[in-house]
Amino acid sequence: MRLYKGALLVLALTLLTGCLGGGGDRQTLLSGGSWPGMTVHNEILYVANRGQVHAVDDQGRQLWSFPESPSNNQNFFAAPAVEEGLLVITDYSNAIFALDPERGTELWSFMTNNARFIGGATIGEDYVFAAAVNGVLYAIDKASGEEVWRFSADRSIWSTPVLDNGTLYITSLDRHVYAVDAEDGSELWRFPDVDVPSADRIAAIVNTPTLHNGVLYFGSLNTLMYALDVETQEVLWEYPTDNWIFSSPIIAEEANLVIGADLDGTVFALNLTTGEEVWTFPTDGPVVGQPLLVDALASEEENGDTVEGSVIYIASEDTRLYQLEVSSGDLVTQPTTIENVYELRFLFFQTGEEVRPMPVYTSPVLFAGNIVVGSHQQQGSNLLVAYDRESMLEDWAFEPR
Predict the structure, then answer these.
(1) Which of 72, 177, 298, 375 could form a disulfide bond with 191, CB atoms 3.0-4.6 angstroms apart?
(2) Rounded CA separation 169/290 (Å)
(3) How many structural domains are present in the chain?
(4) In which band, very low, low, confident or very high, does the pLDDT at 313 lie, cut at 50, 70 and 90?
(5) Does a structural domain hold residue 358?
């Protein structure tokens, strides 16, 4: 069996769910709270990492932390879900917490029977939805924190539920995509169908699907990207990749592109309608986090005309932050090296080195004009680094106090 470049993360998460995997000459031990999940709302950056969740302002100052002191019984790393008056976080222990996003005080908590969460929560009109590695999708009353219903897949769910017009879409390691009624938890359909021959089934799916104009875009561990019509459950196209797909794709609507990446570090842009490859770009390390799409800064040509476009930012495991033009996949600037190192304590690879750069597995976010990247964090090192979009120079860094 092929040992995938970048398999360190997949093997690590397999280890988290109770199945030991390995191969080749590289061994991986990765804690559940190993990388930060970030969400921006109302000029505040919320970051979940290890035993706490932090609220950070646009200068990198800590506003609050939950709990006030790190807990050995909790590991947070899924990106928080937030709306006005409510922030919801899942942990890798057994709980979902609802907080006041301004103060960080607990509003309610929902405890499961050791149902660990890798994916984050989704906030609906009345319910909060979250899925766990026990294969259960939970619906929790948003006001009281009480369970309303649950839906069970056949195997683990690592993704975040996608909610659209009363339907939840989830992926599972049982090789299916599910559509679930958000009101009562009943199954509307699954793809592939239960009666499909085993030879036609897809592989395990770990990423959160991206929904756009009635089509779900997602990658599988069979090295294929799919475009699935949610009305007919018809596969509109498939795209073969070089390696497993862990991150969720993004949609660049004006360019009519879906952009994703694989664990070989290949970034690919495909025609939304046909799946035809438009461009690819090779990074120097596995890409695990979702690319970030933002409008380009205005630039002035020699004739004085102002030109605007879109760019994507990709953080790869090799500790580089790439800035690419959406239309062409060309580098806008040379990759930025994320200057953060750690000693081989928390994450261990047999590299023969005592100190190495921190790997980057999380998705970058746009926050107050900066591109913020989170990495594995040890005492005395930075959890977050913010880079100015124009110069790509470091603006501020954040280390929890």
Answers:
(1) 177
(2) 18
(3) 1
(4) very high
(5) no
